[in-house]
């Protein structure tokens, strides 16, 4: 049902149009990328050395990159000069190896923020989510929507991390550690955050960590937030499923129950927290709102703060889900996560 956004746009453009589009979007693709190269200027009375790294701000929640650094190569460039880049990650916890795309906003390289952490949005695709993550295709507009939201004061400058969701195109794995299968739950919940902390200035607390996703990716994002509310605080779940439905769960009912958002939500309610935030998005031209409404009525209480955003004339696709984010979901999630703080010293 999903086609490559880049391919679709190329078909819509003529040969000359495509050449111009390719020149603008792909100039520099394949080149090495370094995030966070900027460092704060040295104080007038202090002699800085080339190897000197910025120290964290006074906020004890700030986590400077822990290393080791990954090697990134550009896959797309946005109009504001920011870069989407890709690396290959061998997951230390899961044992799974896959591609990860990342994007950092302009603010990340601003010297004023060199001592600050940044909130992280882990963006998960629908379908099998392999071998690519379509949120890394700039034509969907996710990164642009965030940048425009920052300028308008309606979005935080998120670091966006976009991993592959599944290990192959044959099955879907519900973002879970299904017995006998690759540990995709560990990949999403542990390896991806650890990779992000190794390479970027982030926050130690869950206040700087969230998911967004569409379709099966929405399910995985919501499920992971409910599983690990001590690590992740919020999710934007677009057009998503509510319960696990991978065919690979057969014969593993107990493990499937441990990855069922309905059971996880009730467990969190019974434990009385911590609070998590779920924002469903659903197009008015797609099915599934009944499931979301039922889930909200049953579990949207106590520590689970839940909303449903209708996307007028929206269908089951990334363009419309990004529109919903621009219309309010980005502002919603920005209000519950932690903002970076510029260094105002001097």
Terminal CA distance:
54 Å
Name the structural class.
alpha/beta
Helix content range of the residues, please?
25-40%
* Stretches with pLDDT under 50, minimum 5 residues: 1-23, 39-51
Mean pLDDT over all positions: 90
DSSP strand tally: 12
Q: Which radius of gyration do the C-alpha atoms yield?
A: 20 Å
Sheet having the most strands: 10 strands, mixed
SSE series: HHEEEEEEHEHEEHEHHEHEH
Major beta sheet, strand line-up: 1-3-4-5-7-6-9-10-11-12
Shape, principal axes of CA atoms? globular
DSSP helical segment count = 9
How much beta, percentage-wise?
Answer: 15-25%
Brief sketch in words of this structure:
This protein is of the alpha/beta class and 346 residues long. It is built from nine helices and twelve strands. Strands 1-3-4-5-7-6-9-10-11-12 form a ten-stranded mixed β-sheet, with helices on both faces.
């Amino acid at each position: 049902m999903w086609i490559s956004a880049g391919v679709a746009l190329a078909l819509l453009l003529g040969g000359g149009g495509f050449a111009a589009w390719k020149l603008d979007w792909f100039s520099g693709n394949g080149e090495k990328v370094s995030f966070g190269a900027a460092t704060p200027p040295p104080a007038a009375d202090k002699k800085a050395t080339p190897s000197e790294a910025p120290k964290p701000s006074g906020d004890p929640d700030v986590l400077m990159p822990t290393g080791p650094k990954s090697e990134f190569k550009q896959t797309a460039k946005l109009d504001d000069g920011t870069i989407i880049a890709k690396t290959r990650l061998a997951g230390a916890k899961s044992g799974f190896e896959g591609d990860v795309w990342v994007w950092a906003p302009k603010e990340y390289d601003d010297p004023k923020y060199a001592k600050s952490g940044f909130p992280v949005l882990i963006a998960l695709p629908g379908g099998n989510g392999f071998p690519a993550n379509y949120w890394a295709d700039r034509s969907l507009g996710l990164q642009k929507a965030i940048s425009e939201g920052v300028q308008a004061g309606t979005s935080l400058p998120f670091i966006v991390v976009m991993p592959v969701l599944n290990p192959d195109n044959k099955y879907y794995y519900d973002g879970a550690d299904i017995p006998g299968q690759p540990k995709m739950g560990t990949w999403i919940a542990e390896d991806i955050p650890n990779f992000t902390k190794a390479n970027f200035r982030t926050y130690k607390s869950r206040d700087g960590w969230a998911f967004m996703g569409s379709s099966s990716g929405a399910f995985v994002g919501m499920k992971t937030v409910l599983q690990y509310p001590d690590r992740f605080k919020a999710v934007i779940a677009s057009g998503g499923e509510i319960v696990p439905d991978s065919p690979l769960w057969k014969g593993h009912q107990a493990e499937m129950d441990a990855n069922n958002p309905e059971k996880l939500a009730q467990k969190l309610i019974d434990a009385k927290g911590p609070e998590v935030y779920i924002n469903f998005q659903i197009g008015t031209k797609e099915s599934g709102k009944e499931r979301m409404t039922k889930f909200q009525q049953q579990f949207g209480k106590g520590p689970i703060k839940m909303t449903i955003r209708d996307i007028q004339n929206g269908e089951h696709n990334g363009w419309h889900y990004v529109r919903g984010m621009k219309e309010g979901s980005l502002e919603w999630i920005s209000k519950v996560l932690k903002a970076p703080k510029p260094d105002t010293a001097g």
